[in-house]
Design brief:
Elements: H1 2-17, E1 23-32, E2 35-41, H2 44-47, E3 71-75, H3 77-88, E4 97-101, H4 110-116, E5 123-127, E6 132-136, E7 141-145, H5 152-155, E8 167-168, H6 185-191, H7 195-205, H8 214-218, H9 243-256, H10 266-270, H11 278-292
Parallel strand pairs: 1-3, 3-4, 4-8
Antiparallel strand pairs: 1-2, 5-6, 6-7
């Protein structure tokens, strides 16, 4: 995606040169393959480190929370929606931001690619024209179709183009529709399970959790001054690896994101043991859409339904 990278650098250097921003938040090459790092460039020379490809999956909205500077920031569809949530919740002011819109062609799933590798991956090559990803290591080289190794949230994404921006770095890409895919197919499968099956599903899902909190730390919505898991007076959840404590952490964190989550996939991407945390958040996203006709981050003015109250709110869930 050299065309994207060149345009991102061009826009970023112009913004800094013309003193329109104090910094630009983008990505640079990561210390390990498939995981590029969020990077803040404060002058034109630092912009040269910027990259863009299918490994730029961590959400940059994390780096604008409660900032006072003038900030340029790259924003894909989901990143821009998280920026909109930040604006609605008063975590940043619109006039502080210059949003460089990035029409997204989807991110690859590092866990899927790692499972295909016969050893440690040392390099990754992307051929945009052919639509392939090649991973290489000491004794192997494997080429696959990019479409077969996408992050699940990207394969189901309905908002690939930024919903809010000041300038686009490329032409908009075609959007997917529900005529092509069902974004809630997996949720419906879980909903159809009987209670014991659901219990076993989530028990198995969380069995590998090591309570590292990478999902929380990567999430652009987890910006409470003191997280409930760190609160000691009162103590809402234990610090142990007890199964009840693990479940409590994941369920409560998911509910804190209800009506706010944009399904950016940063939580899954950051998880070192590959837990599909989206099994929680995607269900809540579906409920918000069905109950309130609400999708998070599509408006920079309207507050989410669980943040407001009206006497006309539906009460069908009350038995």
């Amino acid at each position: 995606m050299n065309s994207y990278t060149d345009k991102i650098k061009e826009i970023s250097k112009r913004l800094l040169k013309e003193d329109k921003v104090d910094m630009v938040v983008g990505y640079r090459k990561g210390s390990v393959p498939l995981m590029h790092q969020p990077y803040i460039a404060q002058n034109e020379a630092e912009v040269d480190a910027f990259v863009w490809d299918s490994s730029c999956g961590l959400n940059l909205a994390n780096y604008i929370t409660d900032r006072t500077e003038r900030i340029g920031i790259l924003a894909t569809g989901c990143n821009s929606r998280n920026i909109a949530v930040h604006l609605v919740e008063g975590k940043i002011k619109r006039e502080q931001l210059y949003i460089i819109g990035i029409p997204c062609k989807a991110m690859v799933d590092r866990h899927k690619l790692a499972a295909m590798a016969d050893g440690d991956i040392t390099s990754v090559e992307e051929d945009e024209e052919k639509g392939t990803i090649t991973i290489k290591g000491e004794n192997f080289s494997e080429t696959v179709n990019k479409a077969d190794v996408l992050q699940e949230n990207c394969s189901l994404c309905m908002h690939r183009n930024p919903v809010i921006y000041d300038e686009l770095a490329a032409e908009e890409v075609p959007e997917q529709s529900t005529d092509e895919i069902d974004p809630y197919a997996r949720v419906k499968e879980i909903e159809a399970m009987d209670p014991d099956e659901k219990w076993n599903h989530f028990d198995d899902l969380l069995s590998d959790c090591i309570r590292c909190y990478a999902c929380r730390n990567a999430c652009p919505l987890c910006y409470c001054p003191l997280c409930f898991v760190d609160e000691s007076n009162p103590q809402w959840v234990g610090k142990s690896m007890d199964a009840t404590d693990v479940r409590t952490f994941h369920f409560l964190r998911a509910y804190h994101c209800a009506g706010r989550c944009t399904d950016c996939g940063a939580c899954v991407r950051a998880c070192p043991v590959g837990i599909n945390v989206r099994d929680f958040t995607k269900k809540l996203e579906k409920d918000c859409l069905e109950l309130f006709g609400w999708e998070a981050g599509l408006s920079a003015e309207q507050r989410p339904p669980l943040d407001t109250y009206s006497p006309k709110d539906p009460e069908d869930f009350i038995k």
